[in-house]
Amino acid sequence: MLSRLAQQRAGAQAALLRRKILSTARGTGSALTARPQQQQFVQRRALVSAPKPGDGPLTERRPDRELPSIESTTFRWSRTLPTFAALIALASVAIFNYQKLSSPIVSATLYALRTSDKGRAHLGDEIYFAQQIPWISGEMNQLRGRINISFRVKGTRAGGVMRFASYRPTARGMFETTEWSLTTDDGKVIDLLEDGDPFKGVVGGVDLDEDDGEATTRGFRQVKK
Fold it and tell me: What's any one GO cellular component for it (predicted)?
């Protein structure tokens, strides 16, 4: 009896093991066959366009976002670069004009025009620049010895353009005035040098040819013999 019971139990356990092995093998095979099918239906994430103005604060960026267009960046530079160059050129012109305006030559010529009898007769009193921001045209090169400027002036009676030209014949010489005239608005040209040259000895430097001996000892202590 005992041997029969042992044989029945052993047979039942063997049958259970066979069922477990078969069920495990079937599950593994179904999983292996299902994986390729699942991989075939996997879709990639689509590219997302870059944020536009007005979309709100950008708190997170996806790594597969769309890159900005190169054409739009190039077009932006083509619009701003000419504007930047124009501003630089305008600032340079304004700086050079201010340098001429602050020169003592312009102040001296304007003062001489105020005290000139011919200038006051045609322009009147209160002679000053015609514009709030005067434009000094022409060349002003004291180092090379060339001055040729003109600017608009006005008085209580009329307005016009004053021209002043002077040059230095030698590097150690004095400036000589070649033109100092006033052209009124009606086209009349007035020579202001007929009454004399008020700029003689004012525009330019000192005549060094006459003071060579004094210039060598100026600034040094002289030893008594």
Answer: mitochondrial inner membrane
